[in-house]
Protein backbone atom coordinates (compact mmCIF):
# COMPACT_ATOMS: atom_id res chain seq x y z
CA UNK A 1 0.00 0.00 0.00
CA UNK A 2 1.24 3.49 -0.78
CA UNK A 3 -0.16 6.59 0.83
CA UNK A 4 0.61 10.24 0.28
CA UNK A 5 2.75 11.96 2.90
CA UNK A 6 0.77 13.67 5.60
CA UNK A 7 1.45 16.41 8.07
CA UNK A 8 -0.06 14.87 11.17
CA UNK A 9 1.17 15.39 14.75
CA UNK A 10 3.82 12.71 14.38
CA UNK A 11 5.18 14.07 11.11
CA UNK A 12 5.18 17.57 12.55
CA UNK A 13 7.39 16.26 15.31
CA UNK A 14 9.83 15.07 12.68
CA UNK A 15 9.75 18.00 10.26
CA UNK A 16 8.34 20.92 12.20
CA UNK A 17 7.80 24.35 10.76
CA UNK A 18 9.81 27.46 11.05
CA UNK A 19 8.64 30.18 13.36
CA UNK A 20 7.19 32.97 11.28
CA UNK A 21 7.91 36.68 11.75
CA UNK A 22 6.26 38.07 14.82
CA UNK A 23 5.44 34.65 16.28
CA UNK A 24 5.78 34.40 20.06
CA UNK A 25 9.00 32.85 21.30
CA UNK A 26 8.78 29.16 22.10
CA UNK A 27 9.65 28.04 25.65
CA UNK A 28 13.03 26.39 26.04
CA UNK A 29 13.53 23.00 27.67
CA UNK A 30 13.36 24.57 31.14
CA UNK A 31 10.02 26.15 30.28
CA UNK A 32 8.66 22.84 29.01
CA UNK A 33 9.79 21.19 32.22
CA UNK A 34 7.74 23.80 34.07
CA UNK A 35 4.62 22.70 32.21
CA UNK A 36 5.35 19.07 33.08
CA UNK A 37 5.75 20.06 36.73
CA UNK A 38 2.29 21.64 36.66
CA UNK A 39 0.91 18.36 35.32
CA UNK A 40 2.88 16.46 37.96
CA UNK A 41 1.34 18.55 40.74
CA UNK A 42 -2.12 17.81 39.35
CA UNK A 43 -1.23 14.10 39.28
CA UNK A 44 -0.13 14.10 42.92
CA UNK A 45 -3.21 16.04 43.99
CA UNK A 46 -5.42 13.67 42.01
CA UNK A 47 -3.82 10.64 43.68
CA UNK A 48 -4.35 12.29 47.07
CA UNK A 49 -8.02 12.71 46.18
CA UNK A 50 -8.13 9.05 45.13
CA UNK A 51 -7.03 7.99 48.62
CA UNK A 52 -9.78 10.14 50.13
CA UNK A 53 -12.39 8.61 47.82
CA UNK A 54 -11.23 5.16 48.90
CA UNK A 55 -11.91 6.17 52.50
CA UNK A 56 -8.24 6.06 53.45
CA UNK A 57 -5.88 8.52 55.08
CA UNK A 58 -4.17 10.91 52.67
CA UNK A 59 -1.25 13.35 53.00
CA UNK A 60 -3.66 16.27 52.49
CA UNK A 61 -7.11 15.77 53.94
CA UNK A 62 -9.19 18.17 51.85
CA UNK A 63 -12.70 17.41 50.66
CA UNK A 64 -12.09 19.58 47.59
CA UNK A 65 -9.41 17.21 46.32
CA UNK A 66 -11.84 14.32 46.22
CA UNK A 67 -14.45 16.49 44.50
CA UNK A 68 -12.12 17.47 41.66
CA UNK A 69 -10.24 14.16 41.44
CA UNK A 70 -11.50 13.28 37.96
CA UNK A 71 -10.86 16.66 36.24
CA UNK A 72 -7.44 16.86 37.89
CA UNK A 73 -6.38 13.54 36.40
CA UNK A 74 -8.01 14.00 32.99
CA UNK A 75 -7.26 17.66 32.26
CA UNK A 76 -4.77 18.83 34.87
CA UNK A 77 -2.43 15.89 34.33
CA UNK A 78 -3.06 14.11 31.03
CA UNK A 79 -4.46 17.21 29.30
CA UNK A 80 -1.32 19.17 30.15
CA UNK A 81 0.95 16.45 28.78
CA UNK A 82 -1.07 16.04 25.57
CA UNK A 83 -1.30 19.79 24.94
CA UNK A 84 2.42 20.24 25.62
CA UNK A 85 3.36 17.56 23.11
CA UNK A 86 1.05 19.10 20.52
CA UNK A 87 2.59 22.52 21.15
CA UNK A 88 6.06 21.07 20.63
CA UNK A 89 4.77 19.43 17.45
CA UNK A 90 3.42 22.56 15.76
CA UNK A 91 6.33 24.78 16.84
CA UNK A 92 4.20 27.84 17.44
CA UNK A 93 4.80 29.97 20.51
CA UNK A 94 1.09 30.69 21.06
CA UNK A 95 0.37 26.95 21.26
CA UNK A 96 2.13 26.75 24.64
CA UNK A 97 -0.72 28.67 26.23
CA UNK A 98 -2.73 25.41 25.97
CA UNK A 99 -0.59 23.35 28.39
CA UNK A 100 -0.27 26.47 30.53
CA UNK A 101 -4.04 26.78 30.81
CA UNK A 102 -4.51 23.07 31.53
CA UNK A 103 -1.74 23.04 34.12
CA UNK A 104 -2.78 26.37 35.61
CA UNK A 105 -6.40 25.22 35.71
CA UNK A 106 -5.34 22.15 37.68
CA UNK A 107 -3.46 24.33 40.16
CA UNK A 108 -6.50 26.60 40.51
CA UNK A 109 -8.73 23.61 41.23
CA UNK A 110 -6.62 22.64 44.26
CA UNK A 111 -6.08 26.21 45.46
CA UNK A 112 -8.38 28.33 47.67
CA UNK A 113 -9.62 30.10 44.53
CA UNK A 114 -13.24 29.51 43.49
CA UNK A 115 -13.60 26.31 41.48
CA UNK A 116 -14.98 28.32 38.57
CA UNK A 117 -11.51 29.83 38.03
CA UNK A 118 -10.03 26.42 37.36
CA UNK A 119 -13.03 25.37 35.28
CA UNK A 120 -12.73 28.46 33.08
CA UNK A 121 -9.01 27.81 32.52
CA UNK A 122 -9.76 24.24 31.45
CA UNK A 123 -12.39 25.47 28.97
CA UNK A 124 -9.88 27.92 27.51
CA UNK A 125 -7.17 25.26 27.33
CA UNK A 126 -9.53 22.87 25.55
CA UNK A 127 -10.49 25.55 23.02
CA UNK A 128 -6.85 26.36 22.36
CA UNK A 129 -6.07 22.67 21.86
CA UNK A 130 -8.61 22.70 19.04
CA UNK A 131 -6.79 25.70 17.56
CA UNK A 132 -3.58 23.64 17.61
CA UNK A 133 -5.33 20.87 15.71
CA UNK A 134 -6.57 23.47 13.22
CA UNK A 135 -2.93 24.42 12.63
CA UNK A 136 -2.06 20.76 12.09
CA UNK A 137 -5.00 20.34 9.72
CA UNK A 138 -4.02 23.48 7.81
CA UNK A 139 -0.65 21.92 7.00
CA UNK A 140 -2.33 18.80 5.67
CA UNK A 141 -5.39 17.01 6.95
CA UNK A 142 -5.50 13.31 7.69
CA UNK A 143 -8.00 10.84 9.13
CA UNK A 144 -5.78 10.40 12.19
CA UNK A 145 -6.00 14.13 12.87
CA UNK A 146 -9.78 14.11 12.36
CA UNK A 147 -10.14 11.38 14.99
CA UNK A 148 -8.09 13.41 17.45
CA UNK A 149 -10.19 16.50 16.69
CA UNK A 150 -13.29 14.52 17.68
CA UNK A 151 -11.56 13.68 20.95
CA UNK A 152 -10.65 17.32 21.54
CA UNK A 153 -14.26 18.36 20.85
CA UNK A 154 -15.45 15.86 23.46
CA UNK A 155 -12.99 17.37 25.94
CA UNK A 156 -14.18 20.90 25.21
CA UNK A 157 -17.81 19.85 25.63
CA UNK A 158 -16.99 18.17 28.94
CA UNK A 159 -15.28 21.27 30.35
CA UNK A 160 -18.14 23.56 29.23
CA UNK A 161 -20.84 21.29 30.66
CA UNK A 162 -18.90 20.91 33.93
CA UNK A 163 -18.65 24.70 34.13
CA UNK A 164 -22.43 24.85 33.63
CA UNK A 165 -22.99 22.51 36.58
CA UNK A 166 -23.44 19.05 35.05
CA UNK A 167 -21.91 16.33 37.24
CA UNK A 168 -18.81 14.35 36.32
CA UNK A 169 -20.66 10.97 36.31
CA UNK A 170 -23.00 12.26 33.59
CA UNK A 171 -20.02 13.60 31.65
CA UNK A 172 -18.04 10.35 31.90
CA UNK A 173 -18.55 9.38 28.21
CA UNK A 174 -17.16 12.74 27.06
CA UNK A 175 -14.20 12.51 29.42
CA UNK A 176 -13.47 8.98 28.23
CA UNK A 177 -13.74 9.83 24.54
CA UNK A 178 -11.50 12.86 24.99
CA UNK A 179 -8.58 10.61 25.84
CA UNK A 180 -9.52 7.43 24.01
CA UNK A 181 -9.99 9.14 20.63
CA UNK A 182 -6.83 11.19 21.10
CA UNK A 183 -4.85 8.01 21.64
CA UNK A 184 -6.69 6.08 18.92
CA UNK A 185 -5.89 8.81 16.40
CA UNK A 186 -2.21 8.62 17.27
CA UNK A 187 -2.26 4.83 16.98
CA UNK A 188 -3.85 5.17 13.54
CA UNK A 189 -1.07 7.50 12.47
CA UNK A 190 1.66 5.20 13.74
CA UNK A 191 -0.03 2.16 12.20
CA UNK A 192 0.13 3.61 8.69
CA UNK A 193 3.23 1.47 8.19
CA UNK A 194 1.09 -1.63 8.72
CA UNK A 195 0.15 -3.47 5.51
CA UNK A 196 -3.41 -3.84 6.83
CA UNK A 197 -4.02 -0.09 7.09
CA UNK A 198 -5.46 1.29 3.85
CA UNK A 199 -8.11 3.87 3.01
CA UNK A 200 -10.85 1.43 3.90
CA UNK A 201 -9.35 0.77 7.33
CA UNK A 202 -8.98 4.49 7.89
CA UNK A 203 -12.60 4.95 6.89
CA UNK A 204 -13.66 2.36 9.44
CA UNK A 205 -11.70 4.16 12.16
CA UNK A 206 -13.35 7.46 11.28
CA UNK A 207 -16.79 5.84 11.21
CA UNK A 208 -16.28 4.22 14.60
CA UNK A 209 -15.09 7.52 16.05
CA UNK A 210 -18.11 9.36 14.66
CA UNK A 211 -20.40 6.68 16.11
CA UNK A 212 -18.79 7.12 19.53
CA UNK A 213 -19.10 10.89 19.30
CA UNK A 214 -22.77 10.64 18.32
CA UNK A 215 -23.39 8.15 21.13
CA UNK A 216 -21.84 10.48 23.70
CA UNK A 217 -24.24 13.27 22.71
CA UNK A 218 -27.25 10.94 22.72
CA UNK A 219 -26.19 9.62 26.14
CA UNK A 220 -26.54 13.11 27.60
CA UNK A 221 -30.17 13.53 26.52
CA UNK A 222 -31.37 9.93 26.15
CA UNK A 223 -29.11 7.64 28.22
CA UNK A 224 -31.08 4.45 27.55
CA UNK A 225 -30.33 4.73 23.84
CA UNK A 226 -26.95 6.43 24.00
CA UNK A 227 -25.03 4.05 26.22
CA UNK A 228 -25.57 0.90 24.11
CA UNK A 229 -24.31 2.92 21.12
CA UNK A 230 -21.22 3.82 23.12
CA UNK A 231 -20.69 0.21 24.17
CA UNK A 232 -20.94 -1.13 20.62
CA UNK A 233 -18.66 1.63 19.36
CA UNK A 234 -16.03 0.98 22.00
CA UNK A 235 -15.95 -2.73 21.25
CA UNK A 236 -15.63 -1.95 17.54
CA UNK A 237 -12.72 0.39 18.30
CA UNK A 238 -10.93 -2.33 20.24
CA UNK A 239 -11.49 -4.71 17.34
CA UNK A 240 -9.92 -2.18 14.95
CA UNK A 241 -6.91 -1.63 17.20
CA UNK A 242 -6.27 -5.35 17.67
CA UNK A 243 -6.60 -5.93 13.93
CA UNK A 244 -4.46 -3.07 12.67
CA UNK A 245 -2.17 -1.76 15.41
CA UNK A 246 1.50 -2.60 14.92
CA UNK A 247 1.63 -3.55 18.62
CA UNK A 248 0.20 -6.98 17.74
CA UNK A 249 3.43 -7.70 15.84
CA UNK A 250 5.88 -5.78 18.00
CA UNK A 251 4.90 -7.82 21.06
CA UNK A 252 6.95 -10.66 19.56
CA UNK A 253 10.09 -8.50 19.44
CA UNK A 254 12.44 -7.64 22.30
CA UNK A 255 13.44 -4.70 24.47
CA UNK A 256 11.57 -1.40 24.26
CA UNK A 257 9.26 -2.37 21.33
CA UNK A 258 8.05 -5.45 23.20
CA UNK A 259 7.55 -3.50 26.43
CA UNK A 260 5.55 -0.81 24.63
CA UNK A 261 3.47 -3.36 22.75
CA UNK A 262 2.67 -5.26 25.95
CA UNK A 263 1.44 -2.09 27.65
CA UNK A 264 -0.63 -1.16 24.61
CA UNK A 265 -2.33 -4.54 24.30
CA UNK A 266 -3.06 -4.67 28.03
CA UNK A 267 -4.66 -1.23 27.76
CA UNK A 268 -6.84 -2.36 24.86
CA UNK A 269 -8.05 -5.23 27.04
CA UNK A 270 -9.38 -2.74 29.59
CA UNK A 271 -11.37 -0.96 26.89
CA UNK A 272 -13.27 -4.23 26.45
CA UNK A 273 -14.41 -3.84 30.07
CA UNK A 274 -15.60 -0.31 29.35
CA UNK A 275 -17.49 -1.33 26.23
CA UNK A 276 -19.04 -4.30 28.01
CA UNK A 277 -20.32 -2.19 30.92
CA UNK A 278 -21.87 0.39 28.59
CA UNK A 279 -23.43 -2.27 26.38
CA UNK A 280 -24.79 -4.54 29.12
CA UNK A 281 -25.52 -2.17 32.01
CA UNK A 282 -26.26 1.08 30.23
CA UNK A 283 -26.00 4.29 32.25
CA UNK A 284 -23.94 3.94 35.43
CA UNK A 285 -23.39 7.00 37.59
CA UNK A 286 -22.28 5.49 40.89
CA UNK A 287 -21.46 2.27 42.70
CA UNK A 288 -19.14 -0.61 41.78
CA UNK A 289 -19.92 -0.54 38.05
CA UNK A 290 -19.04 3.15 37.88
CA UNK A 291 -15.79 2.56 39.77
CA UNK A 292 -14.92 -0.30 37.41
CA UNK A 293 -15.78 1.77 34.33
CA UNK A 294 -13.78 4.86 35.24
CA UNK A 295 -10.68 3.10 36.47
CA UNK A 296 -10.64 0.52 33.68
CA UNK A 297 -10.26 3.36 31.18
CA UNK A 298 -8.27 5.97 33.11
CA UNK A 299 -5.87 3.57 34.83
CA UNK A 300 -6.01 0.38 32.78
CA UNK A 301 -6.00 2.12 29.40
CA UNK A 302 -4.70 5.69 29.69
CA UNK A 303 -2.04 5.11 32.34
CA UNK A 304 -0.85 2.02 30.49
CA UNK A 305 -0.49 4.15 27.34
CA UNK A 306 1.56 6.69 29.28
CA UNK A 307 3.82 3.98 30.65
CA UNK A 308 4.24 2.59 27.15
CA UNK A 309 5.23 5.84 25.52
CA UNK A 310 7.05 7.77 28.20
CA UNK A 311 10.39 6.74 26.60
CA UNK A 312 9.28 8.64 23.46
CA UNK A 313 7.26 11.48 24.98
CA UNK A 314 9.83 12.85 27.41
CA UNK A 315 12.80 12.86 24.99
CA UNK A 316 10.69 14.66 22.37
CA UNK A 317 9.58 17.30 24.89
CA UNK A 318 12.65 17.68 27.11
CA UNK A 319 15.37 16.61 24.66
CA UNK A 320 16.80 14.27 27.24
CA UNK A 321 16.80 10.49 26.77
CA UNK A 322 14.63 8.22 28.88
CA UNK A 323 16.35 4.87 28.29
CA UNK A 324 14.30 1.70 28.39
CA UNK A 325 14.91 -0.37 31.54
CA UNK A 326 13.53 -3.88 32.11
CA UNK A 327 12.49 -2.68 35.59
CA UNK A 328 9.79 -0.62 33.84
CA UNK A 329 7.79 -3.83 33.65
CA UNK A 330 7.43 -3.78 37.46
CA UNK A 331 5.05 -0.79 37.76
CA UNK A 332 3.23 -1.85 34.59
CA UNK A 333 2.54 -5.35 35.90
CA UNK A 334 1.66 -4.01 39.35
CA UNK A 335 -0.82 -1.58 37.80
CA UNK A 336 -2.70 -4.25 35.88
CA UNK A 337 -2.63 -6.90 38.60
CA UNK A 338 -3.90 -4.47 41.24
CA UNK A 339 -6.57 -3.22 38.84
CA UNK A 340 -7.69 -6.79 38.20
CA UNK A 341 -8.08 -7.25 41.95
CA UNK A 342 -9.96 -3.99 42.27
CA UNK A 343 -12.30 -4.31 39.29
CA UNK A 344 -12.80 -8.01 38.58
CA UNK A 345 -12.88 -9.08 42.24
CA UNK A 346 -13.58 -6.06 44.43
CA UNK A 347 -16.18 -4.32 42.28
CA UNK A 348 -17.71 -7.43 40.73
CA UNK A 349 -18.14 -9.40 43.95
CA UNK A 350 -18.69 -6.49 46.31
CA UNK A 351 -15.49 -6.78 48.37
CA UNK A 352 -14.69 -3.24 49.53
CA UNK A 353 -11.39 -4.30 51.07
CA UNK A 354 -10.12 -5.42 47.65
CA UNK A 355 -11.29 -2.16 46.12
CA UNK A 356 -9.26 -0.28 48.74
CA UNK A 357 -6.14 -2.41 48.50
CA UNK A 358 -6.36 -2.50 44.73
CA UNK A 359 -6.67 1.28 44.72
CA UNK A 360 -3.66 1.66 47.00
CA UNK A 361 -1.47 -0.47 44.75
CA UNK A 362 -2.80 1.38 41.69
CA UNK A 363 -1.35 4.52 43.24
CA UNK A 364 1.88 2.76 44.20
CA UNK A 365 2.29 1.57 40.59
CA UNK A 366 1.85 5.07 39.17
CA UNK A 367 4.26 6.63 41.66
CA UNK A 368 6.79 3.84 41.14
CA UNK A 369 6.77 4.43 37.41
CA UNK A 370 7.24 8.17 37.89
CA UNK A 371 10.20 7.46 40.20
CA UNK A 372 11.79 5.05 37.69
CA UNK A 373 11.27 7.54 34.85
CA UNK A 374 12.81 10.44 36.78
CA UNK A 375 15.82 8.39 37.88
CA UNK A 376 16.30 7.05 34.36
CA UNK A 377 16.39 10.59 32.95
CA UNK A 378 18.79 11.81 35.65
CA UNK A 379 20.95 8.66 35.49
CA UNK A 380 20.98 7.59 31.81
CA UNK A 381 23.85 5.18 32.50
CA UNK A 382 22.35 3.74 35.66
CA UNK A 383 23.40 0.54 37.38
CA UNK A 384 21.60 -2.20 39.27
CA UNK A 385 17.85 -2.24 38.63
CA UNK A 386 18.21 0.88 36.50
CA UNK A 387 20.81 -0.65 34.20
CA UNK A 388 19.91 -0.74 30.53
CA UNK A 389 19.94 -4.15 28.81
CA UNK A 390 23.43 -5.23 27.74
CA UNK A 391 24.34 -4.26 24.21
CA UNK A 392 21.85 -1.39 23.96
CA UNK A 393 22.63 2.27 23.49
CA UNK A 394 20.79 5.32 24.71
CA UNK A 395 18.93 6.74 21.69
CA UNK A 396 18.90 10.43 21.01
CA UNK A 397 15.72 12.41 21.54
CA UNK A 398 15.55 13.14 17.81
CA UNK A 399 15.41 9.41 17.09
CA UNK A 400 12.50 8.99 19.47
CA UNK A 401 10.19 11.76 18.26
CA UNK A 402 7.99 9.55 16.14
CA UNK A 403 5.26 8.59 18.61
CA UNK A 404 3.19 9.63 21.55
CA UNK A 405 0.30 8.24 23.58
Strand share of the residues? under 5%
Query: How many DSSP H or I helices?
Result: 15
Order of helices and strands: HHHHHHHHHHHHHHH
Largest sheet: none
Number of strands: 0
Average pLDDT, rounded to a whole number, is 87
Number of domains: 3
> What Rg is obtained from the alpha carbons, in whole angstroms?
20 Å
| Helical proportion, percent range | over 70%
Distance between the termini: 25 Å
Structural class from helices and strands? Answer: mainly alpha
Coarse shape: globular
Show unreliable segments: 1-22, 393-405
What features would you highlight for this structure?
405 residues; mainly alpha; 74% helix; disordered C terminus
Description of the structure:
- This protein has 405 residues and is mostly helical.
- It has three domains: 29-140, no CATH class; 142-245; 247-405.
- The protein has helices spanning 9-15, 29-53, 63-67, 69-90, 97-110, 115-139, 143-163, 168-190, 199-221, 223-244, 247-250, 255-281, 287-318, 329-349, 352-378.
- It is globular and about 55 Å long.
Summarize this structure briefly.
The protein has 405 residues and is mostly helical.
Question: Helices and strands in order, then pairings?
Answer:
Elements: H1 9-15, H2 29-53, H3 63-67, H4 69-90, H5 97-110, H6 115-139, H7 143-163, H8 168-190, H9 199-221, H10 223-244, H11 247-250, H12 255-281, H13 287-318, H14 329-349, H15 352-378
Amino acid sequence: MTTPPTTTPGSLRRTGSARGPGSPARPNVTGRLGFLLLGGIALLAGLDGALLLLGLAAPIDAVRLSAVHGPLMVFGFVGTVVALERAVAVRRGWAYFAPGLFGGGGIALISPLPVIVGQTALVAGSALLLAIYAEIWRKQGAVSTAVQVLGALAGLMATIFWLRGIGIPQLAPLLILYLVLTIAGERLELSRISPTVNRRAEGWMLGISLNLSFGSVVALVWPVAGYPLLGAGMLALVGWLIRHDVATRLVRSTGLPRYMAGCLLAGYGWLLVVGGIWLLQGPVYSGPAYDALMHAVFLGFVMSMIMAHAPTILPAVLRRPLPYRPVMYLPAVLLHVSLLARVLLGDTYGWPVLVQWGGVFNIVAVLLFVLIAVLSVLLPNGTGLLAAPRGTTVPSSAALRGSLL
